[in-house]
From TrEMBL:
Belongs to the pseudouridine synthase RluA family. This is Pseudouridine synthase. The lineage of its organism: Bacteria, Pseudomonadati, Bacteroidota, Cytophagia, Cytophagales. Pfam families: PseudoU_synth_2. It comes from Hymenobacter ginsengisoli. Residues 19-174 form the Pseudouridine synthase RsuA/RluA-like domain. It comes from the Bacteria. Keywords: Isomerase.
Length: 240
């Protein structure tokens, strides 16, 4: 069996034990399969586990949450059904602290605050719309944000979503603050990035281990992409 290309140097693996596999997902990869037929992260993880542990059959990989295809950062996969069941409950009930970094073209006003919207997703167009008041079947969505500072000609925001709705951070920053994420043409930024990603990164996750109950904190290094280079100074990460 050939070694899977992804994780060939294990750069993307942030943590692994008997129950969890925590990945720093590159932008451009689906977390779970869809109608495109492109190989998702879950399948790549299965191939990695089969190779590593020389499994003759399929390896168990459970998906408890997702981040959008053009978004990079932390994804927690379950290696056992027990872990998956508990993770599903934890993500559903927001029993963890999620931190994202986002680059915008202009600073938010005010520089820090809380956004609450009711989000309605159009599955046919794969677009979410945010309303400031209760709206039909809209789901209440909340996040807090703060401006960390200028990053070259962009601005680095730290975002902590309280809820986990589809496209939540993307649409709330665009609608609520008028600061669409760099590269996110779907939600109002003018130009795409060369790699067709968007400048949104699932930076940190604090969570209780679903089986051992240990408190865990994962931090995902920024992608090796030029648009993130100026943001590395905030954590002294080397430029790509």
């Amino acid at each position: 069996m050939n070694r899977p290309n992804l994780w060939s140097e294990q750069k993307e693996i942030l943590f692994e034990d008997n129950h969890l596999l925590v990945i720093n997902k590159p932008a451009g990869i689906l977390v779970q399969g869809d109608e495109t037929g492109d190989e998702p992260l879950s399948k790549k993880a299965e191939e990695y586990l089969k190779f590593k542990y020389k499994k003759p059959g399929a390896a168990f990989v459970g998906v408890a949450h997702r981040i959008d295809r053009p978004v990079s950062g932390i994804v927690v996969l379950a290696k056992t059904s027990k872990a998956l069941s508990r993770l599903n409950e934890m993500f559903r009930d927001s029993q963890m602290k999620k931190t994202y970094w986002a680059l915008t073209g202009k600073p938010p006003v005010p520089e820090q605050g809380k956004l609450v919207h009711w989000l309605v997703k159009d599955p046919m167009r794969n677009v979410t719309k945010a309303y400031t008041d209760k709206h039909g079947q809209g789901q209440r969505s909340e996040l807090s944000y703060e401006l960390l500072g200028p990053a070259a000609n962009r601005y680095l925001l730290q975002v902590n979503p309280v809820t986990g709705r589809p496209h939540q951070i993307r649409v709330q920053l665009s609608t609520g603050l008028g600061t669409p994420i760099v590269g996110d043409v779907k939600y109002g930024f003018l130009n795409p990035l060369p790699d067709v990603s968007i400048a949104l990164h699932a930076r940190q996750l604090e969570i209780q281990h679903p089986v051992t109950k240990e408190q865990l904190k994962f931090v995902a290094p920024l992608p090796d992409a030029p648009h993130w280079d100026a943001a590395r100074a905030f954590y002294n990460e080397p430029a790509s």
